[in-house]
């Protein structure tokens, strides 16, 4: 019987790990304001916060058709990685309460094949025609490019889709809109985003949809290996998407934001206990995204950070059924996916991983002390 070289066996094992393991570092993340300076990120360095959720406009990431500029994301990721933190990304195809610039690339507006590309929303901003397949196909192309660049990055933790609420109350006035077509395009975004990010948590942000459509989208997200979330943790609230946090508990990832409406805004003023318990106990959240705001109550710097530190940064941490196997904190445990390169992991990087596991290889003897790290990627503990 032919003896297989142990190095080859381990390389294959590592390659399987890279291809099948989902990065899984649930916890509390700071949600920064659009176009916030990097210096704000320092607020969470040395705290129990796992990282930052940052939002990037589509128009900035694709200045020309099929020409991408991910330098802002790369810069944020580098800073966070150097400080032991992670990045959750949300791509903005809309701009709220502001018409100073459009959130989509110019070609989407100027080329007639995209049917105008955007509409004005009721809240004084713009939204991309996300019910239009020609526009959604371009969003999917952007996500494919993002996945090619960032899926192999261990500190690129998750990507969230935009919320389902359109900010246009009179749906009958929207040219070319139908609920059926919108649901179809939402499913397309879930499918293509997860395809682009097989090793990264994908969260579908849902707040408004017809009841049957929400139910169908929740099941579809589960089946595709995606997660469920939204922009609002509201203690005592009853948003249409809320029942599915219980229905799919432990089955798919959950990530939801606490924004200014819940910090003394239109939704009310709540205690930290109320906000935390609503997220962790009622909505069963794995990820909680806290807006970096000291203007309301509780305040991020003086109330939220100390409270989360007092909880040791805990949320629901069990690996969900539809993304198993999970790799938790792989870089910190000596199983690094390389992030210095502008390219996804290569076989050279896999080889480097094997050397990192033991530090040296002697002949055909491989007493790998960290072998359980490989097994963790193949079989969830």
Question: Can you characterise this structure?
Answer:
This protein is of the alpha/beta class. It has 2 domains: 1-21 and 325-381, no CATH class; 26-317, TIM Barrel (Alpha-Beta Barrel), CATH 3.20.20. It has helices at residues 6-20, 58-61, 71-82, 106-110, 133-150, 179-196, 211-223, 243-247, 272-282, 300-310, 347-358, 371-378; strands at 22-23, 27-31, 51-57, 86-92, 94-95, 118-120, 126-128, 156-160, 201-205, 227-230, 254-258, 263-265, 268-269, 287-291, 326-327. Strands 2-3-4-8-9-10-11-14 form an 8-stranded parallel beta barrel, surrounded by 5 helices. Strand 9 (201-205), helix 7 (211-223) and strand 10 form a beta-alpha-beta unit. The longest helix has 18 residues, at 133-150. It is globular and about 55 Å long. The two termini are 33 Å apart. Mean pLDDT is 86; it is low at 330-381.
Topology:
Blueprint: H1 6-20, E1 22-23, E2 27-31, E3 51-57, H2 58-61, H3 71-82, E4 86-92, E5 94-95, H4 106-110, E6 118-120, E7 126-128, H5 133-150, E8 156-160, H6 179-196, E9 201-205, H7 211-223, E10 227-230, H8 243-247, E11 254-258, E12 263-265, E13 268-269, H9 272-282, E14 287-291, H10 300-310, E15 326-327, H11 347-358, H12 371-378
Parallel strand pairs: 1-15, 2-3, 2-14, 3-4, 4-8, 8-9, 9-10, 10-11, 11-14
Antiparallel strand pairs: 5-7, 6-7, 12-13
Give a concise summary.
With 381 residues, the chain is α/β, with parallel strands linked by helices. 35% of the residues lie in helices and 16% in strands. It is built from 12 helices and 15 strands.
């Amino acid at each position: 019987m032919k003896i297989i070289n142990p190095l080859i066996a381990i390389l294959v094992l590592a390659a399987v790990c890279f291809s099948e393991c989902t990065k899984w570092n649930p916890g509390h993340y700071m949600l920064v304001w659009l176009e916030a300076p990097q210096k704000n990120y320092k607020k969470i360095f040395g705290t129990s916060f796992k990282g930052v959720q940052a939002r990037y406009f589509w128009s900035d990431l694709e200045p020309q058709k099929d020409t991408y500029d991910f330098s802002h994301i790369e810069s944020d990721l580098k800073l966070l990685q150097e400080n032991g933190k992670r990045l959750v990304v949300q791509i903005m195809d809309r701009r709220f309460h502001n018409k100073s610039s459009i959130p989509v690339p110019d070609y989407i507006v100027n080329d007639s094949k995209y049917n105008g590309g955007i509409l004005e929303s009721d809240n004084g901003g713009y939204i991309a025609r996300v019910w239009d397949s020609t526009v959604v196909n371009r969003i999917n192309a952007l996500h494919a490019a993002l996945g090619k660049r960032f899926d192999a990055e261990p500190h690129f933790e998750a990507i969230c889709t935009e919320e389902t609420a359109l900010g246009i109350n009179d749906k009958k006035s929207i040219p070319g809109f139908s609920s059926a077509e919108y649901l179809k395009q939402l499913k397309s975004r879930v499918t293509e985003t997860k395809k682009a990010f097989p090793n990264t948590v994908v969260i579908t942000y849902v707040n408004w949809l017809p009841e049957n459509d929400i139910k169908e989208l929740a099941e579809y997200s589960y089946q595709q290996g995606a997660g469920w979330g939204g922009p609002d943790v509201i203690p005592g609230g009853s948003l249409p998407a809320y029942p599915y946090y219980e229905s799919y508990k432990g089955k798919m990832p959950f990530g939801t934001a606490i924004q200014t409406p819940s910090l003394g805004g239109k939704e009310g003023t709540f205690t930290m206990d109320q906000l935390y318990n609503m997220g962790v106990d009622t909505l069963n959240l794995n990820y909680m995204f806290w807006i970096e705001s000291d203007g309301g109550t509780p305040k991020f710097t003086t109330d939220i950070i100390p409270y989360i530190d007092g909880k040791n940064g805990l949320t629901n941490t069990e690996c969900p059924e539809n993304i198993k196997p999970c790799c938790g904190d792989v870089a910190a445990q000596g199983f690094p996916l390389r992030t210095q390169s502008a390219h996804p992991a290569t076989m050279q990087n896999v080889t480097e991983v094997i050397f990192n596991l033991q530090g040296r290889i002697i002949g055909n003897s491989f007493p790998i002390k960290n072998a359980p790290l490989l097994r963790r990627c193949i079989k969830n503990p």
